[in-house]
Amino acid sequence: MDRKCKICQKPLKGRTDKIFCSTYCKNHYHKHLRYASKQAAIEINGYLKRNYSILSELLGNNKSQVKVYRNVLEKKKFRFMYHTHFHINSHNKMFHYIYDLAWMEFSDDEILIVKKRK
Fold first, then answer.
1. Could you tell me which of 43, 42, 48, 114 has the C-alpha nearest to residue 83?
2. Domain residues of the chain, as ranges?
């Protein structure tokens, strides 16, 4: 079996578990791996911030919960698949959280937005 470097494709010599021919190739691989994961985190964090600001705007300053139509969130480009965590309450309803704000699908058309109590 002819083993080759994962980066530059040069033949490998030495240990059988070796995957890079040099420190340069190893560093190059890991630098690009870190960059890709950092870019993904930046993109997802942007979606979370945007979703949070949409929920916060709709909730307002003095309310702890509000019901809105789903299309209101969709028009504001809310991304339903991005949230920080979720909670299933005693009535078996799932709340999707973004930090201290949450939303629950109240019906097919309505979304309940709530602020977590401290």
1. 48
2. 23-115
Tens-digit pLDDT profile for residues 11-28 = 998 888 999 999 999 999
First and final C-alpha spacing in the chain:
62
Neighbours of 83 (CB within 10 A): 19
Structural tokens at position 106: 């109240």
CB-based contact 21:8 (threshold 8 Å): yes
Alpha carbon distance 3, 12 (integer Å): 6
3-state secondary structure (DSSP) of residue 110: strand
Measured distance CA(67)–CA(83) in Å, rounded? 19
DSSP classification of residue 11: B
Mean pLDDT of the chain: 91
Encoding tokens for residue 90? 């005693």
